[in-house]
Amino acid sequence: MNLTACTIVLLIFLLLPSCASEDKLFVGKPLSPRDVIVSIDGTFALGFFSPSNSTPDKLYLGIWYNGIPKLTVVWVANRETPIMVTGRSSSSAPTLALTNTSNLVLTDADGRVVWSSNAIAGTAGSSVPSSAAGPAATLTNAGNLEVRRSPNSATLWQSFDHPTDTLLSGMKVRATRGNRAGDRLVSWRTPGDPSPGSFAYGIDPATSLQLFTWNGSSTLWRSSVWTGYRVANGYVANISTVVYFTVLDVKDDASVSLTLSLGAPRTRYVMSYSGKLVLQSWNKASLEWDDIDVWPWYECSRYDYCGPFGYCDNTVAAPTCKCLDGFEPASGEEWSSGRFSRGCRRREALRCGDGDGFLALPAMKAPDRFVVVGNRSLDECTAECSRNCSCLAYAYANRSSSSKGDFTRCLV
Ligand SMILES: *[C@@H]1O[C@H](CO)[C@@H](O)[C@H](O)[C@H]1NC(C)=O
Ligand SMILES: *[C@@H]1O[C@H](CO)[C@@H](O)[C@H](O)[C@H]1NC(C)=O
Ligand SMILES: *[C@@H]1O[C@H](CO)[C@@H](O)[C@H](O)[C@H]1NC(C)=O
Ligand SMILES: *[C@@H]1O[C@H](CO)[C@@H](O)[C@H](O)[C@H]1NC(C)=O
Ligand SMILES: *[C@@H]1O[C@H](CO)[C@@H](O)[C@H](O)[C@H]1NC(C)=O
Ligand SMILES: *[C@@H]1O[C@H](CO)[C@@H](O)[C@H](O)[C@H]1NC(C)=O
Predict the structure, then answer these.
(1) What CATH number does the domain containing 60 carry?
(2) Which domain holds residue 392?
(3) Are 347 and 327 contacting, i.e. CB atoms less than 8 angstroms apart?
């Protein structure tokens, strides 16, 4: 009897600290740098952080993985406007507050606003007490900070709509957002500096049919072209997880999203400060992030690396640039010394309309800068290209589904 009672007391005591942490921010109860908000299952935390020893004077508000020994931030509110921590002691501190108009407002120690969620102000309504019935910002188990006017009302604002460098399970990257430009995952400048770096990841604004990573304004890497709804689900054996990468191409709303099977370890896409897009998974044994996949994986799969009419052959042990059949390196000397940017040239000039034909190249990534021609059969797509002397190639696919009633995909 005594032993049991003792155990219960001990258990309650041990559980107390996590029970005490809140997953919500209410009006009139601002968050200060000593506080954190933790999602109900303990996966994510929201609070103030200083990214590294190199910038101890800068304070950011962000969301990170809770309960792992390596600070891994997945979202930052004020990446462009850090709070400067001055040496002088101040009676007040920076705070994150939820206003009675359901806006999140981040202020520095002097009360200056450094960031605000700027959700539709709406009606302030009747006086809102700091209780569960009024507006609240909730940190979900998925790592999303959601603002609602009342517990069951629609989401007014959510951090998932404002990605920084990370795509979490349940998040979407959209081609467009109403009148706003599409979403971009933008890298940190350095590991210790969350301000926007030069690398970005997003949907091709011209076609919505492929994904790019960019270095400033130049393209670094390009995905293959998708052909409608597509779920690429890869089973990653060593993390026992199915990673679903879903492309939705519906009228005016192309998007990509990440979903993980139940019980998955912490896994995320991140646009890294080094310019690579990485699928990372937390390794509980080594207490490190493992790179499960990396884009571009090979040097030669970088955008335009192999030049015009060149391609990266990744079916061989050491992937390298090759020329298409009927082509030869534009400069044999440069090509053999490993400089491929001038690409390849035709061995024999085209005689458009006079006996030229097409050569099928299976398992190739369709080239960039294509024109999409709707509602064409395979033969019509072939004809579209062969009757036009400036068309050099076409790609064709039958799609299994389409939101726009056109199941064909003809690219010229
Ligand atoms: C909302 O907050 C503002 C500023 O703090 C205050 O002036 C106003 O009276 C509040 N409105 C209600 C309805 O509580
Ligand atoms: C990105 O661009 C900068 C400036 O053009 C260049 O110095 C750097 O090497 C590029 N980085 C990558 C990874 O391509
Ligand atoms: C899983 O695979 C990745 C990539 O091949 C590797 O880096 C990592 O160490 C592996 N993780 C485990 C837990 O074996
Ligand atoms: C597709 O083309 C066929 C003839 O090629 C035409 O009959 C049909 O109306 C077209 N459909 C659409 C949706 O444009
Ligand atoms: C020929 O093809 C080019 C590029 O594919 C395109 O810009 C042009 O409009 C086409 N011309 C005709 C007459 O279809
Ligand atoms: C596309 O579908 C049509 C009709 O179902 C079929 O005749 C054609 O061979 C298919 N083309 C390709 C490239 O799969």
Answers:
(1) 2.90.10.10
(2) 356-412
(3) yes
